[in-house]
Amino acid sequence: xxxxxxxxxxxxxxxxxxxxxxxxxxxxxxxxxxxxxxxxxxxxxxxxxxxxxxxxxxxxxxxxxxxxxxxxxxxxxxxxxxxxxxxxxxxxxxxxxxxxxxxxxxxxxxxxxxxxxxxxxxxxxxxxxxxxxxxxxxxxxxxxxxxxxxxxxxxxxxxxxxxxxxxxxxxxxxxxxxxxxxxxxxxxxxxxxxxxxxxxxxxxxxxxxxxxxxxxxxxxxxxxxxxxxxxxxxxxxxxxxxxxxxxxxxxxxxxxxxxxxxxxxxxxxxxxxxxxxxxxxxxxxxxxxxxxxxxxxxxxxxxxxxxxxxxxxxxxxxxxxxxxxxxxxxxxxxxxxxxxxxxxxxxxxxxxxxxxxxxxxxxxxxxxxxxxxxxxxxxxxxxxxxxxxxxxxxxxxxxxxxxxxxxxxxxxxxxxxxxxxxxxxxxxxxxxxxxxxxxxxxxxxxxxxxxxxxxxxxxxxxxxxxxxxxxxxxxxxxxxxxxxxxxxxxxxxxxxxxxxxxxxxxxxxxxxxxxxxxxxxxxxxxxxxxxxxxxxxxxxxxxxxxxxxxxxxxxxxxxxxxxxxxxxxxxxxxxxxxxxxxxxxxxxxxxxxxxxxxxxxxxxxxxxxxxxxxxxxxxxxxxxxxxxxxxxxxxxxxxxxxxxxxxxxxxxxxxxxxxxxxxxxxxxxxxxxxxxxxxxxxxxxxxxxxxxxxxxxxxxxxx
Length: 703
Description:
Blueprint: E1 4-9, E2 12-17, E3 42-46, E4 49-52, H1 53-63, H2 71-95, H3 101-109, H4 115-121, H5 131-143, H6 150-175, H7 182-193, E5 196-204, H8 217-226, E6 232-233, E7 237-246, H9 251-262, H10 265-270, H11 274-280, E8 284-285, H12 297-300, E9 311-317, E10 320-331, E11 335-344, H13 348-366, H14 372-379, H15 383-386, E12 391-396, H16 402-409, E13 417-422, E14 425-435, E15 441-451, H17 456-470, H18 476-484, E16 492-493, H19 511-520, E17 535-537, E18 547-557, E19 560-561, H20 564-587, H21 594-600, E20 606-611, E21 617-618, E22 622-623, H22 625-633, E23 643-644, E24 648-657, H23 666-681, H24 684-691, E25 695-697
Antiparallel strand pairs: 1-2, 3-4, 3-25, 5-20, 5-24, 6-19, 7-16, 7-18, 8-15, 9-10, 10-15, 11-12, 11-14, 13-14, 17-18, 21-22, 23-24
Helix pairs in contact: 1-2, 2-6, 7-23, 8-20
């Protein structure tokens, strides 16, 4: 999140809190909700409660300060938060569910941290939470010394945590009511534990060629009527197709980027403070000594011949021009085996005590008064490795936090004892083994780079080219004709979008996609219409055009059950298969045995092994519930009528019921299926509540 600037280095996490001062706790109690009655900026309503655009923008600024996410993704999160929070709060109040102050504190700073806290403050590599940092925040809240803006951020975060906890409580409330009765468990056991072997004949839909099938609107309407739940929309959607023209760098752009790096090489080499130079020039320094195989391809061939302080470049890696400076060479193993003793610490006083204890332990081990493994088992607070005498096994470089990694890999030898301090506490490390494959040399490097970007002149050249392509095109037929003459281009269909959408399959999410969707939903835009001018697309965080896009409104899918006109292109293949199955079933009417059907269609009689009723699936034919249902409904050794399947026609003859070796008890079955149903409840409860809520979405008319 924007308020939290995270600096991660190989497992370490430093949380820097920016901004903000507050008095009192819980913070949420301090911040009052804004008035959301302004209808001019009414983003939407949920059960009579309004979200105002100014409130949305304020929340966006607080939560996402410094974030490079596109504004529409941010607003989508805020809209969904408002929607779900309103519904969950309302439902919780009706049944008396609440989150107490102490409960909230425990989820923010205690042992039962909220998933939100784990996500925002956890180390992505180790999953560890820096509790010292959170304790510091808590202390500042209680003392009223938390920096300036943090009150607003923490207030919103507390509401997010409460929303999540109330959702969990509501879900658990419903889950407690789930029960599998004995009779149902017995039926499930019977369905799952009595598989059947069956003979069958299949005639695939492909037996009939596409040219033999004439589809009518009645065929499409029949398919839609049979699948109304799938093709019913709560709001209007539209399908947009696009022709995309990628904007690439020119030779002149490449030469300019190359020169930009070349101009810095002398100062890069002369720099005496590499960290400061890299910071000033937006470069990077490798945290570890890299083996040759880990380096950029151009560096692999030359790095062994460089002296410390030498630079190499410019060279190209994808769309980046780089230069490297060798900062150091060292013999580095591919992996190191070590064991450690950890004394955990969080406060300065605890670190002081931990250092003294590790010093005493190191002295005792060196003098032979104690054995490393025994001390690790007795004292180490890393319970996982302590049980193994502190043994961590072999680790590749970069797996541990940086101080620990450096102690293992840099200037280390087998049998050596090293004391090192990390955010987890103070460690005593013993190197117990090393593995090196091939060249042992490792290289520490600094890099400067610049991205290869199309200049404004290049963008204008591409724009002129696209405009020339569009000249004279006024229909989809004309567009397709021109595309056939340009093999590198095609008309790409996106998924259906609603009026508030901001992402297309063929265009990156952001303002460009949003502008195309707004054009498509303009009342003046008709199906089959092509935009009169191309849309310029910029990727989030970039300030150049990455592509020009020509959109076409392909279909309008109205609210309610979809129409034949709006769904025809999407359904053609499925309706074609269904029609072929009907035609095959008509042809097969005279067949009364498997052999007769196989002979009629040049097919064969085959076997389905161990078919289970509840899955609707059988090895060899795939997901065919009608076929499976017939197998289980027929008397043994009797032949079915012709069965219309999803991908062809079938005839079956069950001939053997199997008895599996292991049949679960009714008690186990009841426990398993109740547990399964409870797991399926997660996430679905809120969606069900949304379906019953009165929701007014005005986003498309505001942004």
